[in-house]
Amino acid sequence: MPSDAIRAALIKRLRISSAIADEDIAEIEALPISVRHFPAEQPVVRDGERATNCCLIADGFCARSKTIANGKRQILSIHIPGEIPDLMSLFLHVMDHDLATLTPSTLGFISHETLQRLHRRRPVVAEMFWRDTLIDSAMFREWIVNVGQRPAPARLAHVMIELRERLRIIGRLDGNNFEMPLTQEQIGEALGITAVHANRVIKQLRQEGIVDLHRGRVTVLDERKFLELADFDNRYLHQSPTL
Amino acid sequence: MPSDAIRAALIKRLRISSAIADEDIAEIEALPISVRHFPAEQPVVRDGERATNCCLIADGFCARSKTIANGKRQILSIHIPGEIPDLMSLFLHVMDHDLATLTPSTLGFISHETLQRLHRRRPVVAEMFWRDTLIDSAMFREWIVNVGQRPAPARLAHVMIELRERLRIIGRLDGNNFEMPLTQEQIGEALGITAVHANRVIKQLRQEGIVDLHRGRVTVLDERKFLELADFDNRYLHQSPTL
DNA sequence: TCGCAGTTCCAACAAAAGTTAAGGACGGTG
DNA sequence: CACCGTCCTTAACTTTTGTTGGAACTGCGA
């Protein structure tokens, strides 16, 4: 994958959430990025590590998670191309969670130093990245609500619709069909339920003709029921740069 | 409360998490702040509102929350003096959650404009505030883990210890006794359980001689058991400015 | 002082989710 | 093609949590 295409995904996404000037785009296009390929299920940065780079997803799916003392794991977020899941490491140098690939991925690494220099040169870019980390934070808030208050079927539907909404932005939807490459074990970890229960829930939604999940692909069967179940309000994604 | 004392709490807290120069402190001390008093259980900013100020807690406890379609409420975080719970509104202008007082509170409002100007003048201060929002985000991640993976008694213990840790920083601990002014209803909303179950859990921890909660005051009965139950690792609070 | 409203507390029952265990489907590989 | 490992699927049973409804306690104001 050419380095240009990698930057394109980032810029496309940033344009959605922030107003951005052409000079600033030029600056981002000039950033030195070192590209590496990762197989599926591979750690990128680990909890406790000291990060010196940020990682831009050029291709593939990644997830952030934390593992507690009893060995249970909680998935915190799912990430798609164009996102920088560990932007926070710029100021929180010691990682407080894991970042790992879900599928084989192409990642672009940008050194903290490079980003710091860019920020000093272009405060507007810094503000844009700051806003990006704030949207990340808003997504965590919604994730708390999902895990804390919604019944399991609604949790699943909500995560699916959030992912669909974000895939739409980067043009990765085909009809009522989109990728969600998690095993049922991982879905359980994302929703705060066991894999067995995740299976029950998936089966139920399939039988009720709401949505089907098969081999990492989501197929919406009844859009109305799906939306109603998920109780989804996209405001928390803060996609409008003017607001 | 004199305006100086208000700023002091903020500066004390910022010094813990960031290295900060004396000139920058002078700038913060010079910020125009307008002070208002709020009764208990009063909304400060509401979900959907457009914010033009950030709010510094000078005295009292506040909480952030989201309410979903079925009326259930999830508490996202508890805030104490010296914190700026809605700093995120600087770049996410339309609120995606509520901020309200828990107890009667004294709040200092700083306009977004003032903060923006300060950031342009002193990029280092901007970075410090950015870091502050990132720590906020880290706390949300841990809250997700708490609600998603820990059994109810451990959830309660974890929230208690997080609060204690933060109260310690601002010098608000008296021995093994500290304030946590939430009703059992609110504790339920924070932990993602019902008030009835919250009551069961509190009772259980009391009977097991681990911790007692009475009228908004926490008394630790057995520190060892308490720590073990909570599974608390303070790394996510990022209290060391050098890391 | 009384009564009111908001808590706290509790019991009985119902529902949701966890645990354990095991069979079946599927993709990859020798 | 047969084998292997991973994931999916299901059933039976246990535990945790939710629901409903009501009693006791507490602080506050009429």
Within the CATH hierarchy, at the fold level, what is the topology of the largest domain in chain A?
Answer: Jelly Rolls
Structural class of chain A: alpha+beta
Helix content of chain A: 40-55%
Number of helices of chain A: 8
End-to-end distance of chain A, in Å?
A: 34 Å
The total of beta strands of chain A comes to 10
Across the major sheet of chain A, the strand order is 2-6-4-5
Q: Unreliable stretches of chain A, pLDDT < 50, 5 or more residues?
A: none
Overall 3D form of chain A? globular
Mean pLDDT of chain A: 95
Which secondary structure elements does this structure contain, and how are they paired or packed?
The structure is a homodimer of 243-residue chains.
Chain A lengths: L2 H15 L4 H8 L4 E5 L4 E3 L7 E7 L2 E6 L5 E7 L18 E4 L3 E7 H10 L1 H27 L2 H18 L7 E3 L4 H8 L3 H13 L3 E4 L2 E4 L2 H8 L13
Antiparallel strand pairs in A: 1-7, 2-6, 3-7, 4-5, 4-6, 8-10, 9-10
The structure holds a DNA duplex (30 and 30 nucleotides).
Could you explain how this protein is built, in words?
- The structure is a homodimer of 243-residue chains.
- By secondary structure, chain A is of the alpha+beta class.
- Chain A folds into two domains: 3-143, Jelly Rolls; 151-237, Sandwich (Jelly Rolls).
- Chain A is built from eight helices and ten strands.
- Chain A has helices at residues 3-17, 22-29, 112-121, 123-149, 152-169, 184-191, 195-207, 223-230; strands spanning 34-38, 43-45, 53-59, 62-67, 73-79, 98-101, 105-111, 177-179, 211-214, 217-220.
- In chain A, the strands form three sheets. Chain A has a four-stranded antiparallel β-sheet with strand order 2-6-4-5. Chain A has a three-stranded antiparallel β-sheet with strand order 1-7-3.
- The radius of gyration of chain A is 18 Å and the shape is globular.
- The two termini of chain A are 34 Å apart.
- The mean pLDDT of chain A is 95.
- The interface between A and B is large, with 48 and 48 residues.
- Chain A binds a DNA duplex (30 and 30 nucleotides) through residues 151-152, 183-185, 193-197, 199-200, 202-203, 215.
